[in-house]
Amino acid sequence: MTTHSIIESIRALPAGWNPSGSLNLQVIDRLYKCAAGAENSAETGCGKSTLALSHAAKKHLVFACEAFPGDDPEEHSLNKVRKSELLNVGACQFVIGTTQTTLPAFNFDRRFDLVLLDGPHGFPFPELEYYYFYPHIRKGGWLVIDDIQIPGVAQMVDILKKDRMFSLQYVVRTTAFFRRTDSPLFSPTGDGWWEQGYNKRYGYSVRHVQLGLRPRIFVQGLMRRISALRG
């Protein structure tokens, strides 16, 4: 299938095709373009994005849940994706279960050209997904985060915007597209919080913590938040 026919076929699906909600078609189009010709892509959650990415990348890894008790199995997103004629079955590997349990147990034996995080959105689950994926995104690869209108997810995006490893390239509707830079990997087993841009913007250093001090810019921001809460 050509790029045009894939996107048009997905566009023709009913609006309520995925009862859990679907990515905007502009987002799916951008996803497809970013992943086109990629060796490996991955996502948490599944839906129309899975259909598109199964054609864009040579191998696509999907972490998704089966229907929960009380859900209609026939309307569940995983079943609808697997039964869709638009799915390139041969390109897909499905890892079934909640990402809170499947990601820690998965053997990450490949580098990813694109990773879409669209699993559970409650804190700290987006951060957990990020933790297990970020060491395996190749330099120049894409990290895509959906539903950035949710405050907890938005905060993670704010942190990544200050991170040297990632550069925000696009925001399409409520989806952020980051590109992995050439900066060295932040150790997933170390600490080094004082090296991270989000902490540096407040003027924090190891010395401040050791002495129990707070930089002026942090105190000023804290006082503004307290005043706002008091009304």
Question: What report would you give on this structure?
Answer:
The protein is of the alpha/beta class. It has one domain (3-186): Rossmann fold. 38% of the residues lie in helices and 19% in strands. The mean pLDDT is 87.
N-end to C-end Cα span: 57 Å
Query: Which percent bin holds the helix content?
Result: 25-40%
Question: What is the CATH topology?
Answer: Rossmann fold
How many separate domains make up the residues? 1
Structural class: alpha/beta
CATH superfamily: Vaccinia Virus protein VP39
Tell me what the CATH architecture is. 3-Layer(aba) Sandwich
Number of strands: 7
- Label the overall shape: globular
Q: Helix tally?
A: 10
Question: Features of this protein?
Answer:
10 helices, single chain, alpha/beta, Rossmann fold, 19% strand, 231 residues, 38% helix
